[in-house]
Amino acid sequence: MIKRLLLSCACIALITGCATTATVTPPPERPVSETAPTAADAKAYVEAAEAKLGDLSEYAARVAWVRNTYITHDTMWLESKATAAFTEESVRLATGAARFNDVNTDPETRRKLNLLKLSLVVPAADRAGAAAEIADISTRLDSTYATGRFTHKGKTYTLDEASQILATSRDPALLRAMFEGWRTVSVPMKADYARLVGLTNEGAQGLGFADTGALWRSGYDMSPDAFASETDRLWAQVNPFYKNLHCYVRRQLNAHYGDAVQPKHGPIRADLLGNMWAQDWANIYDIVAPKSLPKSAYSLDRLLTQKKYTPEKMMRTGEAFYTSLGLAPLPESFWQRSMITRPRDREVVCHASAWDLDNRDDVRVKMCTQVNAEDFYTIHHELGHNYYQRAYKDQPFLFKNGANDGFHEAIGDFIGLSSVTPVYLNQIGLLDKVPDASEDIPYLLKMALGKIAFLPFSVVVDRWRWEVYSGQITPNRYNERWWQLVNDYQGLTPPGVRPRDAFDPGAKYHVPANVPYTRYFLAHIYQFQFHKAACDQMGWQGPLHRCSIYGRRDVGQKFNAMMEMGASQPWPDALEAFTGTRETDAAAIAAYFAPLNDWLTQENKGQNCGW
Ligand code: X8Z
Ligand code: ZN
Predict the structure, then answer these.
(1) Model pTM score
(2) Active-site pick, 88, 202, 374, 382
């Protein structure tokens, strides 16, 4: 997951730059005469800027790839230099774009001038040294996270090892140790992070935004305030369902662990939910599985191991889903250059990401894949980024991006929804027999532990950052406010009192890496809109959770047409092209989970829900 100049998809090529490699013509300098700029000047400015950024981006992406797949003092140095040079250039171009503010340009040029500003996810002020300091801090934060280790009872743990224990152990003391241990890694990040907030705010203000949070909220073809209200509206739509799930899960955890570990009332202990950030609860399915229903007939985790899947085979299986929709196979270079397992002998950024190194064909995935259901899904997620990148590669440079960042995150998740259906797993020989309707509730519950549990987490991360950037939260309240938000939205509590020096937000990748997170909240709404639209297009009559689009070239063609638009139009146009609607709406996710929500409502009768 890496920053990119253009709205910074978690997973698109970082466009940092090295000024010394630039060979293209620079954009026209400020005219010497005071004559007002014309629409033609604006168009020429944008074209020159695109040529320059396009050229710089390949160098930058390759430097970033090397640092991400081989963290050393020297690769950090290189990346930091490249990022600084690129940020300086981008700030110069974005600032220069302001002189066309009052020019009546053609719509395409106007959109590009705007995108030029919005592309700076971590903006620097237009003064000597600002970009360099930001780049230095960013690379250091990201590398501190990636190389983080802690010890417990004499043994050293990486994030993958601690996560594995959180997923499988049912020993509350050990779970707590892993949860707290990982959070020691972010303690030293706090001062850097606080400094970075001030520096990027200065940059955002230089570009005309109130602060960095307002800049991030401006990438959705509406005002930043309207966007914040939009996320409130969507959260309100799904919140009752989350409360239902929370209530049911808390009761099962209480039954399993007893009152001393998980009380009947109040928030849930965050380390009991099977994931380091309690953002995905699917790993505790065994604890919450409905006792009143037949035991689930299969576990994808077990099937993958039984059928001897390897990370490469999982990746090939993911590709085959996309090609079944009529999309082209991945280029040979993908297989040669991707990093799909953790290398034995060097430090890397393990957090999964998908890259576009040359804005054309050199797409790759970087992942420390493990053979389990979670990574099977993540592979489909990452490949979605790569297929989007390939679809819009013929767009002009500033439009080579998602319709918005939520779209970029939703593509692969939409495919992922079909890729875990029993009917598809049966078609590819992973599952011998498709279970009957008695497995619908267990299946939906498993899905909800992933998808519904995630929603409030994805709200918390950026609520916290928006408040940090606006100055509402100062460093002395960083951690306290984080847990307040976790309590309010997720209804969770840490397993014990947090130390005074803790900086727990830094223990989540996207905070040190400065990747905006609301994209994932949106993606969790969009992917169900895509899924429902696709199933409707197929004439699917059954329940949505049983629908799989595998092999449907008709759906693939229409979907690719939307992806080919890239960022060339406001996102409602893209949404409309595939789904027929211009609104983000939680009705599709609600329809998908409706049978489960009804079942949970019954199960929770008489319970004192909430916290
Ligand atoms: O960061 C990711 C992807 C890369 S864009 C692996 N995700 C979020 C996370 O891990 O926190 C996917 C789901 C949410
Ligand atoms: Zn992603």
Answers:
(1) 0.95
(2) 382
CB under 8 Å to 139, separation ≥6 — which residues? 67, 76, 79, 80, 83
Residues linked to residue 549 through DSSP beta bridges, in sequence order: none
Place of tokens 């509590």: 493
Give the integer Cα–Cα distance in Å for 255 and 324.
44
Measuring from atom 8 of ligand 1, which residue has the nearest CA? 520
**What are the strands, taking DSSP E only, across 324-408?**
353-356, 363-366
Has 382 been annotated as catalytic? yes
Distance in angstroms (rounded) separating the CA atoms of residues 357 and 82: 15
pLDDT, average across residues 500-513: 98
What's the rounded Cα separation, in Å, for the pair 408 and 387? 10
Q: Which residues of 52-88 are buried (b: 16+ CB within 10 A; e: fewer)?
A: bbbbbbbbbbbbbbebbbbbeeebbebbbbbbbbbbb
Residue 507 CA, ligand 2 centroid: distance in Å: 18
Q: Determine the straight-line distance between the first and last CA of the chain, rounded to whole angstroms.
A: 34
Whole-number Å distance between alpha carbons of 139 and 122:
12
Whether 3 shows a pLDDT value over 60: the answer reads no
Residue burial 497-521, b: 16+ Cβ < 10 Å; e: rest = ebeeebbbbbbbbbbbbbbbbbbbb
Mean pLDDT of the chain: 94
Q: State the distance from the centre of ligand 1 to the C-alpha of 381, rounded, in angstroms.
A: 8
Query: Is residue 293 very low, low, confident or very high in pLDDT (cuts 50, 70, 90)?
Result: confident
Q: For the segment 440-481, what is each residue's pLDDT rounded down to a tens digit?
A: 999 999 999 999 999 999 999 999 999 999 999 999 999 999
| Distance in Å, CA 410 to ligand 2 centroid | 8
The answer for residues whose C-beta is within 8 angstroms of residue 162's C-beta and 6 or more apart is 150, 178, 181, 182, 276
Which tokens belong to 150? 């802690």
10 Å CB burial of residue 295 (0-12, 13-18, 19+) is: exposed
Q: What is the 3-state secondary structure (H, E, C) of 219-239?
A: CCCCCHHHHHHHHHHHHHHHH
- Look up residue 152 and give its amino acid: H
What is residue 363's predicted lDDT score, i.e. its pLDDT?
98
- Which entry of 510, 524, 531, 545 is annotated as an active-site residue? 510
* pLDDT one-digit tens code per residue, 544-557: 999 999 999 999 99
Residue 14 has pLDDT above 90, yes or no: no
Is 246 annotated in the active site? no
Query: What gap in Å lies between CA 559 and CA 84, rounded to an integer?
Result: 37
The Cα–Cα gap between 249 and 336 comes to 43
Give residues (CB < 6 A) around ligand 1: 1, 10-11, 352-353, 378, 381, 520
Residue 8 clears pLDDT 80, i.e. is over it: no
> How would DSSP label each residue in 287-299?
HHS-TTSPPPS--
